[in-house]
Amino acid sequence: MIQELLEKLLNWQDNKSGDEAKRRLKLVIAHDRIGLSSEKVEQMRQEILEVVAKYVEIDPEDMEFDLSSSDRMTALVANLPIRRIKDENPPE
Amino acid sequence: MSRVIVVTSGKGGVGKTTCTANLGSALVKLGKKVALVDADFGLRNLDLLLGLENRVVYTAVEAIAGECRIEQALVKDKRQSGLVLLPAAQNRNKESVTPTQMKQLIMKLNKAFDYILVDSPAGIEMGFRNAISAAREALIVTTPEITAVRDADRVVGLLEAYGIKRTRLIVNRLKPDMIKMNEMMSVEDVLEILAIPLLGIVPDDKQVIIASNRGEPLVLGDQKTSVPATAFLNIARRLEGEKVPLLDLMADQDGFLGKIRRFFAG
Question: What are the residues facing B39 on neighbouring strands?
């Protein structure tokens, strides 16, 4: 019983289902609104990455690529940290 | 000219028909003449919630087919003069009527009523398109549940695409105790996601079920003791353009002491 009480106290600030619902909804609605499946979005991400990678070197670990919705507008938000600009004329 | 308003939601079972019946009744209480149109062909229920199920003779389908005049199909509510129901057919399916036919039918009622509320079926297919065909305004009913809000968002987009610009939201079946525990999305959360204007909030309440058992809209009963009845009346007043503050449903759940305090505060 004490253990249960402790767990409850420790989980006090934990993620409640209300927040979870809101987070999941935002994501699924952003997809619904542009009518793209997650596979399509993934495909788009890959292709954009390929294009960007031609010019700059990016860090695939640190990148963000999300659809987000606010006020009935959907935006594609991509944040691609550049590791370094590719040299135009690499040394032979 | 009447205001033609469609009540819709996308998802089934969120309380469209209950909202239509109660808002109709509330508007009549404010002195308006109201026609309620059941556009849920094949699965009609508005007659039951209004307690008019035994008085249905003709339906919208016969009126469209020219088998009766539209006046013959209208069922008058004996408890409230000024309220009529245009019932949906129960035996034919939703595909037997087109949006153009539905629009023409509703437009025949245009002169005699202040409001025409159209109860839409669930879904976004033909039945939905019939229901919105004559509407200039829409009320979207949702509950604070993830599935209902998602479907409501789809419908908001569709209404926009069909040129219905004035779309407002009713959040139904709110459970303040769950919101306090953060186990349910709040009205603010739902509004942030859907981004359309809020017309009203209706709490989850046993009385809604009791009223539907009896076929008696809530606003016909004792409003002083019924929070949902007050909520519906307030929504009707807002439709009329009155500025009515939202009920503080969150304060309503502060337990026994709070209830006593409010009792003495009148």
Answer: none
Domain that holds residue B39: 3-265
Extract the runs of DSSP E, i.e. beta strands, from chain B.
3-8, 34-38, 75-76, 83-86, 115-119, 137-142, 166-174, 198-203
β-bridge partners, B200: B170
Q: Which residue of A has its CA nearest to B148?
A: A25
**Could you read off the pLDDT of A2-32 as tens digits, one per residue?**
666 666 665 555 678 999 999 999 988 988 8
How far apart CA B16 and CA B46 sit, in angstroms, is 10
pLDDT tens column, B34-89 = 999 999 998 999 999 999 999 999 999 999 999 999 999 999 999 999 999 999 99
Number of domains in chain B: 1
Under 8 Å between Cβ of B27 and B159: no
User: Which CATH number characterizes residue B223's domain?
Assistant: 3.40.50.300
B46 contacts: CB under 8 Å, gap ≥ 6: B17, B20, B21, B36, B38, B40, B85, B87, B88, B119
Cα–Cα distance measured from residue B200 to residue B192, given in angstroms and rounded to the nearest whole number: 15
ipTM given for this complex: 0.80
Report chain B residues whose CB lies below 8 A from the CB of A21: 145-146, 184-185, 189
Of B215, B214, B220, B250, whose CA–CA distance to B232 is shortest? B220
Q: Do A24 and B146 touch (CB under 8 A)?
A: yes
Q: Is-contact A83 A55, C-beta < 8 A? A: no
Report the distance separating Cα B12 and Cα B16, nearest Å: 8
Give me the residue spans of the domains in chain A.
Answer: 17-85
Distant-in-sequence, close-in-space partners of B65: CB < 8 Å, separation ≥ 6: none
Q: DSSP letters of B62-87?
A: HHHHTSS-HHHHPEEPSSSTTEEEEP
Of A24, A25, A33, Cβ closest to residue B157: A33
Selection from B118, B164, B137, B87 nearest residue B7 by Cα: B118
